[in-house]
């Protein structure tokens, strides 16, 4: 076996002025270049590009613009390795003759479609990424084969004992302390005069009715959920007291504290489900990582 580690993937970019037909041939040739060999399977540059495009489509509804590009950039160096690992798992899964329900595949495709405003937008997104519906269907099938195999061979064999949950709680008890919480109304305006009027109304009647200010009801735990300037004010204000107006970043704020919930230590029954989920996920990642490492040790892998 040849180790691939951090060798990465170098993509050839032609810098020659070619005619339209020759340029197209050059592009097709580049897409057909081999990126890696995994046992008897070949991963082409097109496979890698399609994988990146498919990943982009999955993240497009969650991230936009620069945030999306930053997310993808942070992943790109690991995507070939991820693609190789996926291929190893799929190869192993196919040995067990797993059968996919076609309706599950269709349902998953429809789920992705529904993230877009219309079928036209979905098709446009596919075209923009250089994908076809067949590419998406193929990738979904591979993903489902992997998930089913991982469920049956790894996930379903993991157990977390009650004693493990208790031990984790006792060793990390400080992490389950809940800091003081404040529930409060906040008035925000860019007009200093409107802020003074709102303050007087709150002080005299306990409510604000005005088109020039916005009122929001909020809650926050002490220790970083609010900007420091706001937290300092809110957590120094007494119950039913009003603080402000105070100018923060060219806006005027008024705060009225409605409730103060003291800090408390969460008991084991309150957090045992969270601890169980954490320990289960940790074991899952450890088992999966170990399983993939074993597949790599037995596999022939070559990166070009």
CATH H-tier superfamily of one domain: Porin chaperone SurA, peptide-binding domain
**Main sheet attributes: strand count, strand direction, barrel closure:** 4 strands, antiparallel
Helix tally? 10
| Rg over CA atoms | 28 Å
User: What's the level 1 CATH class of one domain?
Assistant: Mainly Alpha
Overall shape: extended
Q: How are strands sequenced across the largest beta sheet?
A: 5-4-7-6
Model regions low in confidence, pLDDT < 50 over at least 5 residues: 1-29
By CATH, the architecture of one domain is named Orthogonal Bundle
Question: If you had to describe this structure to a student in words, what would you say it looks like?
Answer:
By secondary structure, this protein is an alpha+beta fold. Among the domains are: 20-96 and 144-158 and 282-303, Porin chaperone SurA, peptide-binding domain (Triger factor/SurA peptide-binding fold), CATH 1.10.4030; 180-262. It has helices spanning 20-32, 45-60, 65-95, 102-113, 119-128, 133-153, 162-171, 192-205, 228-234, 268-298, and strands spanning 34-38, 41-44, 177-178, 181-189, 214-221, 242-248, 251-261, 264-265, 301-303. The strands form 3 sheets. It has a 4-stranded antiparallel sheet, sandwiched between helices. The longest helix is centred in the N-terminal third of the chain and has 31 residues, at 65-95. The protein is extended, with a radius of gyration of 28 Å.
What's this model, at a glance?
With 304 residues, this protein is of the alpha+beta class. It has helices at residues 20-32, 45-60, 65-95, 102-113, 119-128, 133-153, 162-171, 192-205, 228-234, 268-298, and strands spanning 34-38, 41-44, 177-178, 181-189, 214-221, 242-248, 251-261, 264-265, 301-303.
